């Protein structure tokens, strides 16, 4: 059962700019993004702002259509236009959890009203009564017990962690094959983060749901995922098994991320960052390798053309000529 | 880190039994409830806590910037021999920004969008110090240089700068009158991890050259352990554990501290399931009876429900407020 | 915010309460007008008919007596039997307020208090109906343009912006001057069709901003139908703005109606606060100092305007908690 349920090949997403000054230019949000995801696997996409990680999730969930390239889910290709029935089927298979737990909940609806929608839209429940049962069941599964206490409440009456549990419950209620989690814990209090992360791991283990876990936190990615892919300025820089990417980081950007991450164990024995600079503009990205202006190992070839993904280990690839 | 001979030097700031909070219709919210700590000259105190623990109120209380219905009810803040709580606004103005300054949370919102960066720095100089126009301008350029912002950015507006640069402007503004103490309230929270690291390095470099002390407030405990000398863990308005960061990291005593440490996955070591903490922080208007953490504590005892433990020194430079660690003679 | 919460907060707010009281007061006056007004608003005399004797037949005047400057007494017989007495009291012309005429009379002898009372009906009706019409029209256009975006939005926005640029008051005046049908309905239509662009723009912005919030994106990812999203996800989050828009439109309509009537472009034979002002102006009330004629309608229009403004402030405070005082 280790087949690929999601395959991205050479996916580009460019947003055209509308203003007169910028006519003809685009925002290169994603360029040549390719990876695959196996059933039951957790793939982390790690990157800073502008890396393209959220855009990737939006393309997979079809909030955006890709500009170029191929996206295939469970063998079926997701084309530019799909019928309403096909779209609905896709939404039943791929769900998304957003970063802001409060923003993802309609403030004028009760928790019960919010959770029952997926069951009704996808006609999972047969009669009204069983919708209620399913709502109670899913709330219990995410730890919001007793469910009756929560169904009548409004989002603003819950804590951040509870709200995120509601979001997870809603995403999970349609029994998707893939859940895209976009920085699900970064807006939560520290003490709540672990339980949310553990809950997602439990869902994966008990129900075989695949996850794409988007984060800027390398340590969190290591905790959650089987494989990690590092994105920078819209392109994948490195991808491989989690331990390999972290312990045998190849790409200079991955090494930069690793050295910048807080790690109490190293404490005072830390070397200062050797790399300065800022994340480049996505409208006029640097030529060739997008990291070359900041790379301590840059060579002339780096600015001339974009390096292809090169195999550097078992299932471990990096986009670097080193 | 230099081991200071503490018997010779009095701390730069001594906070004793500070109580501060907000008066609302239904009562008084004790955001800061009986807080005490010491900050040595040139030291780096980290205050860790989650939302609603009172750390921001503490920061504003030290600066005497509490507004409207927020007040300091009791306690003292001895800064270089003067009790800040007892000063009136006139006297405090002489200290504010000159001796103690602050870098606020989310620089994006703290900078005035319609004034250029240079103008805002000059404003800060004029508001708290006395300088001629040209002196002020020179000083502003000098301090921007200190934080690695090029001179040609003097006339830029906040929206033209990146997040990291805005934060550095914030720090420059805090440094401008060469204070002894800078309070930083979540200065790097909204920034990317690489930018965050460069800002932290810059702060440490400036500390070495200029010698100011820092109170650094954040929820990111793993970062704080790395960069602070002394660490205070706040929960529901009280400090529950306090001491050197090495001691707290290697031997956390309070169950809350242990829970927090257990909430940060690490980049090294074995990957295994970690705990985290159940429940949510209490309502500061009606905090739980006894120890404020007891409803969430995995090691709760009957006494915890009845009385509230106080900070007690258990080891050298390590205090904790917990009945699990009370001295034997108190039982 | 839930509708119930909004209404609860609204009623708690002192400004809203005050404004609401004024509105309720005037509504009560409008509803119970026949019972409150002592005279018919358009009449300038009072007839008291009395049967003196009971018989049958033709009507002839047998006696006619002018009792005083205002009162005339006629005695009729109707053929053989009944004798009536009709005492016609002409109302005083241009009289100052007195116990019989609380707000005095017009130059034609009409009781102003009665006119004001009955006038409330037209003024409020036109205001509220127009406000409702404008708001519904604006909301519909806003939802369609905001949610569907693309070319639909472009067309509607272009249309809106063009109409926005045309000054509404001159447009109103020109249309009113040219149409031949006089009455309340044309006024409602004129006012409605010239004031929809402004709220449309405002409501559309709100629709777009809500549409971009995460919970609407979630609904789309879950597979909700667009109609459901518009009515159950977006619209409930706009309640305060829609209410504020309604109050503003109503206020504008009341002012607009008064303006049109004052200029004589409405139907001057109906009784509304605007027509009272028209006749006051026409009869030189300002010059003759007949303050009881033009002051009451002016004050009442201002009062109703204030009531809607207050309710609008309350809505602002509800939607933006930072404006609330503790």
Brief synopsis:
By secondary structure, chain B is an alpha/beta fold. Chain B has helices at 55-62, 89-95, 107-110, 117-128, 133-146, 163-175, 193-210, 221-227, 245-250, 255-261, 302-306; strands at residues 13-24, 27-39, 44-48, 70-79, 82-83, 100-103, 181-185, 213-218, 230-235, 238-244, 312-315, 318-320. In chain B, the strands form 2 sheets. In chain B, strands 6-7-8-3-9-10-12-11 form an 8-stranded mixed β-sheet, with helices on both faces.
Plain-language structure description:
The complex is a heterotrimer of chains A (322), B (331) and C (326). Chain A is an alpha/beta fold. In chain A, 32% of the residues lie in helices and 23% in strands. Chain B has 331 residues and is an alpha/beta fold. Chain B is built from 11 helices and 12 strands. In chain B, helix 6 runs parallel beside helix 7 (193-210). The longest helix of chain B has 18 residues, at 193-210. The two termini of chain B are 38 Å apart. Chain C has 326 residues and is an alpha+beta fold. Chain C has helices spanning 3-12, 14-31, 33-36, 112-148, 150-165, 168-178, 184-195, 197-211, 214-222, 226-234, 239-262, 273-282, 285-288, 291-319, and strands at residues 45-53, 59-66, 71-78, 83-90. The model of chain C has no long low-confidence stretch (mean pLDDT 83). Chain A binds chain C through residues 61-63, 87-88, 91-92, 95-96, 98, 100, 103-109, 117-118, 121-122, 154, 167, 170, 174, and chain C through 1-3, 213-215, 217-224, 232-233, 236-237, 239.
Write the element-wise H/E pattern of chain A from the N-terminal end onward.
EEEHEEHEHHHHEHEHEEHHEE
Nearest-angstrom radius of gyration of chain C? Answer: 26 Å
- Major sheet: arrangement of strands of chain C: 1-4-3-2
Which sequence of SSEs, written as H and E, runs from N to C of chain C?
HHHEEEEHHHHHHHHHHH
Mean pLDDT of chain C: 83
Layout of SSEs?
The complex is a heterotrimer of chains A (322), B (331) and C (326).
Chain A (H helix, E strand, L loop, with lengths): L3 E13 L9 E13 L3 E5 L6 H8 L7 E6 L2 E2 L6 H10 E4 L13 H11 L6 H14 L5 H5 L8 H14 L4 E5 L7 H18 L2 E6 L2 H7 L2 E6 L2 E7 H6 L4 H9 L49 E4 L2 E3 L4
Parallel strand pairs in A: 3-8, 3-9, 6-7, 7-8
Antiparallel strand pairs in A: 1-2, 1-4, 4-5, 9-10, 10-12, 11-12
Helix pairs in contact in A: 3-4, 3-6, 4-6, 6-7
Chain B lengths: L12 E12 L2 E13 L4 E5 L6 H8 L7 E10 L2 E2 L5 H7 L4 E4 L3 H4 L6 H12 L4 H14 L16 H13 L5 E5 L7 H18 L2 E6 L2 H7 L2 E6 L2 E7 H6 L4 H7 L40 H5 L5 E4 L2 E3 L11
Helix pairs in contact in B: 4-5, 5-6, 6-7
Chain C lengths: L2 H10 L1 H18 L1 H4 L8 E9 L5 E8 L4 E8 L4 E8 L21 H37 L1 H16 L2 H11 L5 H12 L1 H15 L2 H9 L3 H9 L4 H24 L10 H10 L2 H4 L2 H29 L7
Antiparallel strand pairs in C: 1-4, 2-3, 3-4
Helix pairs in contact in C: 2-4, 2-14, 4-5, 4-7, 4-8, 4-11, 5-8, 6-7, 7-11, 9-10, 11-12, 11-14, 12-14
